[in-house]
Design goal:
Layout lengths: L1 H12 L2 H10 L8 E6 L6 H4 L7 E6 L7 H4 L9 H12 L4 E7 L3 H11 L9 H9 L1 H13 L3 E4 L9 E4 L24 H18 L5 H5 L4 E7 L6 E5 L4 E4 L5 H11 L9 H7 L1
Parallel strand pairs: 1-2, 1-3, 3-6
Antiparallel strand pairs: 4-5, 6-7, 7-8
Helix pairs in contact: 6-7, 8-9
The structure holds zinc ion.
Length: 286
């Protein structure tokens, strides 16, 4: 607590005044444009690595940035409420948010646990909330990891039954070289190793995009093109952010050289400008 209390004093002496001004500016009209699901890991500082300001973004954090898919969420006789679908409903249906981002990261302890339990099922501890969380929420990711290992490096399909327009393909092949004409991404973290855990990191983020689409409450928003779901990845060793490119079918670093290509792909996929049909306009339309 010493660090926290001393931090509060430093905050009061430095950024507090500016933050209060920002609170005042958005007091009557906060218009966040995205919700980010990311890991609770202490190295993950999403508002810093996106330089978000007050009111820009909702953030939901848990172990392993997982969003339970609808079939595991509950049944008519037994509803198991978790934060993640509730946060989606709050942000998208009530807040008019048009961009949902799932951001994973390297050296994720939750994914390491998921992978360890997959390798050694006997280590599963029924009394461990963490073991239960990663096994239940990461079940689909492990299924896809097995598929990838069994089939080898090839295009994987991530299909959504509830929102077919959101289906996409991914090349999950860390050892593959980018095509010669592809100057877009000089670096791809997933090329560094063929370690299955690295593949698992990647698959887990992409599987969460499918899990989000499994929730019926979002179907109309997704199929009408008002809501878009994105996969991001943060490398805690280099500080680089990656965005999954549906055109390239892989994660591509976001830097000064690639950002325009990312933006043009997003503009083509998400044609409505933020300020043209944002939360206010959408709320009125509903
Ligand atoms: Zn993590």
């Amino acid at each position: 607590m010493n660090k926290i209390l001393r931090g509060v004093i430093k905050y009061r002496q430095t950024i507090r005044e500016d933050l209060v001004k920002q609170f005042e500016e958005i007091k009557n009209n906060p218009q966040p444009t995205s919700v980010m699901f990311t890991c609770m890991d202490s190295r993950m500082l999403p508002t810093r690595f996106t330089q978000s300001r007050v009111g820009d973004m909702f953030v939901v954090r848990n172990a392993g940035n997982m969003i339970p898919e609808a079939p595991t969420y509950g049944t008519s006789s037994e509803v198991s409420v978790t934060t993640e679908p509730a946060a989606l409903e709050l942000a998208v249906k009530r807040g008019g948010i048009r961009h949902v981002v799932v951001c994973g990261h390297s050296d994720c302890k939750a994914i390491n646990t998921l992978y360890r339990l997959h390798q050694c099922p006997k280590e599963f501890d029924p009394s461990s909330p963490m073991d239960n969380w990663v096994r239940r929420s990461g079940y689909s990711s492990i299924k896809r990891l097995n598929e990838r290992i069994h089939r080898g490096p090839s295009i994987m399909k991530f299909d959504s039954e509830v929102a077919p327009s959101q289906s996409f393909e991914a090349i999950i092949d860390p050892m593959d070289k980018l095509s010669a004409e592809d100057k877009l991404s000089q670096v791809n973290i997933f090329q560094q190793t063929d370690n299955p855990v690295f593949i698992c990191f990647q698959i887990n983020v992409l599987q969460q995009l499918v899990n989000i689409c499994s929730h019926q409450i979002l179907q109309e928003h997704l199929e009408s093109g008002r809501l878009h779901i994105h996969g991001m990845w943060f490398d805690v060793y280099t500080g680089d952010d990656y965005l999954f490119s549906k055109d390239k079918k892989r994660f591509v670093v976001i830097d000064e050289k690639t950002v325009d290509k990312h933006l043009s792909e997003l503009n083509a996929r998400c044609p409505l400008p933020e300020d043209q049909d944002g939360p206010v306009a959408f709320a009125k339309a509903k």
